[in-house]
Amino acid sequence: MADVRPFRGVRYAATGLGAALCPPYDVISPELAKSLRSRARNAVHLELPEGGGAARYARAASVWRRWNSDGTLVRDSRPAFYVVEERYRLAGRARVRRGFLAALGAAPKAARAIVPHERTLSKPKADRLRMLNALRANVSPIFGVFSDASGSARRALAAAVKTRPVARGKSHAGVSYRLWRVDEPRLVSALRRALAPRSILIADGHHRYEVSRVHHRHTHLPGSDAVLAYFVADEDPGLVVLPTHRIAGRSLLARANELATLKKLPSLRVLEKALARAKNPYAFGLVEKGYHLGVPKSSDGCRSGLAVEWLSQRLLADMLSDEMSYTPDPALAARKAKAVKGSAVLVKPFGVAQVRRAASAVGLLPQKSTYFFPKIATGLVFRPLAP
């Protein structure tokens, strides 16, 4: 049973969120961080503060205390769910995604309903644990998806957005946000009933969920048995999952020729279309000295049906973490690979259902296997651990 609860959120007192929102910490580039930090009350000062070492976490804690005392942030008097509507464009098409923010149980019993799909790394987990210890608050939500075949959750969200939002704004990436506070018992009950029997697939935030479980196990502080989470139905038409392409800092062409049959194509656009149509689920694109469609000569026991598994076990098996970078943008991957005289490895597109099947078949996939788009913004609502 999924443990999904309303909570007393902390929100910006101002209803305009444009200058306040930032992406999750792990997708904020140094250039973007510098730009966002120029905004005095941007959530980046909590999510990814300037500096290093212990001073960084102390700075975030100081900002959190100051904003809660000077009126920048206010806490709602009653527990609620927070409905979020995002409007954005992708590949020239306008899209709308609706979900809601809630507290998701992180205690051992509640964790049985949670399905992770990516491996985690020790360094980001250590960083997020230190931040959680410093703030005693969830700053950015994890991202969970759930099956809503009956449509009951989506109907409750549609009812919620008929009222006036409590805040709105546009992120740096051009995503328009509207936020509603929902404490009406009928809607709260409808959302809880819709999710209670479901398993929750973690789309984004694996490190933060694991950290919350560790923090609860070690501290048992009030409120530590849950984590801030954003939920979207699998069936929501605005839910998009993009493949995360790999940029290798060295040549992979010879190795790819050993492991796969390569077909040279005239352009990146042609390669993208051919990769999407390829029948082999482990097919991949390679950009190095031209554009190549790769079809593995053997699946080597892979069972996930996702190319990231084969790539991790075979083509990229001996790559060090500092030799790799990632992006969902194939053109950017190609440019970066050329700049470092390396290779761009393009991952075959897939959907949410395929991610669920892969997690069921093999458990955890390599890190950076998926990119759920757009990333849910930080700064919509914060969740203090204290009740």
Give a structural overview.
The protein has 387 residues and is an alpha+beta fold. It folds into two domains: 247 residues, no CATH class; 124 residues, no CATH class. It is 33% helix and 27% strand. The protein has 13 helices and 21 strands. Strands 1, 4, 5, 6, 8, 9, 10, 11 and 12 form a nine-stranded mixed beta sheet that branches. β16 and β17 form a beta hairpin. α3 packs parallel to α5 and α5 crosses α8. The longest helix is centred in the N-terminal third of the chain and has 17 residues. The radius of gyration is 21 Å and the shape is globular. The two termini are 22 Å apart. 46% of the residues are buried.
Topology, please?
Blueprint: E1 4-5, E2 10-12, H1 30-37, H2 44-47, H3 53-69, E3 73-75, E4 81-90, E5 93-105, H4 108-111, E6 114-115, H5 122-135, E7 137-138, E8 142-146, H6 152-160, E9 167-170, E10 176-182, H7 185-195, E11 200-204, H8 206-219, E12 226-233, E13 240-243, E14 245-248, H9 253-259, E15 260-265, H10 268-277, E16 284-287, E17 291-296, H11 307-315, E18 324-327, H12 330-339, E19 343-347, H13 352-362, E20 370-373, E21 383-384
Parallel strand pairs: 6-11, 8-12
Antiparallel strand pairs: 1-5, 2-3, 4-5, 4-10, 5-12, 7-21, 8-11, 9-10, 13-20, 14-18, 14-19, 15-17, 16-17, 16-19
What is the structure about, briefly put?
With 387 residues, the chain is of the alpha+beta class. Helices cover 33% and strands 27% of the residues.
Tell me how many strands there are. 21
- Number of helical stretches of at least 4 residues: 13
Give the count of structural domains.
Answer: 2
- Helical content (DSSP H or I, runs of 4+): 25-40%
Structural class assignment? alpha+beta
Our measurement of the CA-to-CA distance between the termini, rounded to an integer number of angstroms, reads 22 Å
Largest sheet: 9 strands, mixed
Shape: globular
- Uncertain stretches: none
Q: Rg from C-alpha positions?
A: 21 Å
Average residue pLDDT: 95
Strand residue percentage: 25-35%
